[in-house]
Amino acid sequence: MDGLILPFPYHHVIARYEAIAQKQSGYANVPCAVRDCFPEASAGPAVPCNDVVEVFVRRNLKITPRPYPSAKQPTPRYGRTYNPKISHPTPHISNLKHIFTAMSIRVEALTKVYGTQKAVDGISFTAEPGVLGFLGPNGAGKSTTMKILTGFIPQTSGTASVCGFDVVKQPLEVKRRIGYLPESNPLYTDMYVKESLGFVAGIHKIHEPAKRIADIIEQTGLGPEQHKKIGQLSKGYRQRVGLAQAMLHNPEVLILDEPTSGLDPNQLIGIRQLILDLGKTKTIVLSTHIMQEVEAVCSQVIIINKGNIVANDTLQQLRKNNGDKSLEEVFISLTNN
After folding, report:
1. Are the C-beta atoms of 12 and 49 separated by less than 8 Å?
2. Contact present, 180 and 151 (Cβ < 8 Å)
């Protein structure tokens, strides 16, 4: 059990997991593979589950056919008769530990107060490998949340962890595993592009920095501008330099605040494809106001409004739950109040 990262207590997951299995199978007493994998997880009462648990369970814990063991014949419900020769839907997890440790970001009851204003109001969510669209109107709390996750500012209360490391208690471990492109994109404008990447590589003590820098320059399309001073670059190319610096140390998590700001349509296509490719192996939190961008690259969407999460689901399910409206229409209906 040591080292496992869960976004909520074990028994919350088990209670919801078994409830889904019982409903699908029609039997009250369902043998649960979760308990087989983690006997310690059985402790604790069955509790009402919140939206975070529901999304986590339905996305990650799949129900697959498996015959009941003869010694654990369940009590029939709804007049159905149990037949041990027939496969019934029951929980089956072959790699539960991987699912739990895959939670690269965990936020629980996170709050940030400035004076009398709550910029972030007790939000909870998790993020796993893939691209998470983090959306909201201006002033909703997006940038504040991202600054907390990166250790840039402290939270007032609640917890946040990146790859299992607490952002307050283990900030250096978090920074080793995170790449951050803030909205302001601070750069040393008197440095040359390649020089600035070399400077960042030195901070991260990257092995074979010249090779890594060359790879990143190619990935971000900085080749034609690599020998120019950053101050001479257009806004679009400055954004690419910021993205290159965030990616340089090959972090497990990337937090990108408006990464495509200032890019022309041709540049947009390349950077979006890069984000998609990176999302296959990394956890990416992408903040943007461009809904088409979210639809193009994001697998999960969180919408925050006035410091509270008003939606947290897959893009497909979010649209389905809102009458198959476009993401823009869903966004407006959830935040225009």
Report:
1. yes
2. no
Q: How many CA atoms lie within 13 A of 22 on its CB side?
A: 14
Name the token pair of 29: 């007493």
pLDDT in tens, 185-200: 889 999 999 999 999 9
Reduce the secondary structure of the chain to three states and give it as a string.
CCCCCCCCCHHHHHHHHHHHHHHHHCECCCCCHHHHHCHHHHCCCCCCCCHHHHHHHHHHCCEEEECCCHHHCCCECCCCCCCCCCCEEEECCCCHHHHHHCCCEEEEEEEEEECCEEEEEEEEEEECCEEEEEECCCCCCHHHHHHHHCCCCCCCEEEEEECCEECCCCHHHHHHCEEEECCCCCCCCCCEHHHHHHHHHHHHCCCCHHHHHHHHHHHHCCHHHCCCEHHHCCHHHHHHHHHHHHHCCCCCEEEEECCCCCCCHHHHHHHHHHHHHHCCCCEEEEECCCHHHHHHHCCEEEEEECCEEEEEEEHHHHHHHCCCCCHHHHHHHHHCC
| pLDDT tens string 271-328 | 888 888 888 888 999 998 889 899 989 989 999 999 999 999 998 899 888 888 999 9
Structure tokens at 246: 């965030």
pLDDT tens, residue by residue, 144-176: 999 999 999 999 999 999 988 899 999 999 999
C-alpha atoms less than 13 angstroms from C-alpha of 40 in its C-beta half-sphere: 4
Q: Which of 282, 313, 281, 311 is nearest to 300 (CA)?
A: 313
Which whole number is the average pLDDT over 45-56? 43
- Whole-model pTM: value is 0.69
Q: Count the neighbouring beta carbons within 10 Å of the beta carbon of residue 316.
A: 11
Token duo for residue 62: 């799949």
Side-chain half-sphere exposure of 237, counting CA atoms within 13 A: 19
Distances (CA, A) of 189 to 79, 95, 217, 260, 263: 74, 48, 17, 19, 19
